Amino acid sequence: MKIVTLNEIAYARSGDKGSASNVGIVFLNKKLYDWGIDNLTEDVISDYFKDIAFGGVKRYLLPNLNAMNYILFDSLNGGGSESLINDAQGKTHGQALLKMKVEIPEEYI
Fold it and tell me: pLDDT tens for residues 52-76?
């Protein structure tokens, strides 16, 4: 097993969706995507974003793209353009997810 950051095995794109944000992650190949299905569950991503996704996480699978889309509910403090406390922007959440360290079989790299 090898510890890597997700940016070594995938790309991400994210954005604002009202008071939620979405994070799409696209894996480099099907083997990595299949690994992601088992290892990047809603619970895992919810725990990773526990300090910002106060409404939980919902995952959608996109097998034809080797991709997943996560909705991080209640993660923008009312919305990217609504927040008076901070300038919450969902576009940063994809980059944050790519910094996540994961353990993956060495032969997948």
Answer: 999 999 999 999 999 999 999 999 8
